[in-house]
Design brief:
Shape: globular
Strand content: 15-25%
Strand order of the largest sheet: 2-3-1-4-8
Oligomer: single chain
Radius of gyration: 18 Å
């Protein structure tokens, strides 16, 4: 089953994506993961991306989508994938549709994690991250030692997790990515909207139930 996750920062896509992938027995893939892997492995698209990165330029959509296509074509992703953060604009959604078509596959379900802006501010303002291992934490004060055994790093609050910065990120998300939601609602792909506020385990149970129904519908 091929699943795409949508939703604003702080909606819980990362946490739920990992759980979905584990329960379905398929990999979870984020854009940054496949980009770094392609550059590390020296694939054709990875080398193209490295050229842009070395110049300090943004990697264009066609290269990012080429890297995603390389990843989807590997045996590890042949039986399905959970895609997190791959689509942020309508042209990227259109490009991903072409990628699946070229590979003779289809996107089975789009999961949209819905959450109010002020709830995002509340969540992310309480988040800190280890400077060394990048493990995120909630409720830890900046400057405390990382609890991860053997790390030795310190926990800090990222500048883009300050309330004003979060609100700016949310405005950018609404302007850029909300049109993607409308696009997927109308393109024929099974689209499921999930209330992302509440108990994490309860949200996981709801998501898995909705995915079962999505699979039955498409089957």
């Amino acid at each position: 089953m091929n699943i795409l996750l949508l939703g604003p920062p702080g909606a819980g896509k990362g946490t739920q994506g990992e759980r979905i992938a584990e329960r379905l027995g398929v990999p979870k893939v984020a854009t940054g993961d496949v980009l770094r892997a392609a550059v590390r492995d020296g694939t054709a698209m990875g080398l193209a991306a490295k050229g842009f990165m070395d110049r300090g330029a943004l990697v264009p959509d066609d290269v990012i989508l080429g890297i995603v296509k390389e990843a989807l074509a590997t045996p590890q992703l042949a039986n399905g994938v959970v895609l997190d953060g791959v689509v942020r604009t309508v042209p990227q959604a259109e490009g991903l549709q072409r990628v699946f078509a070229d590979l003779g596959r289809e996107l089975n379900c789009v999961l949209m994690f819905d959450i109010a802006d002020e709830e995002v501010v509340k969540r992310l303002a309480a988040r800190t991250v280890c400077q060394k291992c990048q493990t995120p934490y909630t409720g830890m004060e900046s400057g405390q030692p990382c609890p991860r055994p053997g790390c030795g790093g310190k926990v800090v609050r990222r500048s883009d997790d300050e309330p004003d910065a979060i609100r700016s990120r949310m405005r950018a998300y609404r302007d850029q990515t909300e049109p993607v939601v409308d696009w997927y609602r109308n393109d024929g792909t099974s689209f499921v909207q999930v209330n992302a506020v509440g108990d994490v385990d309860a949200i996981t149970r709801l998501v898995m139930k909705l995915l079962d129904e999505c699979g039955e519908t498409r089957g």
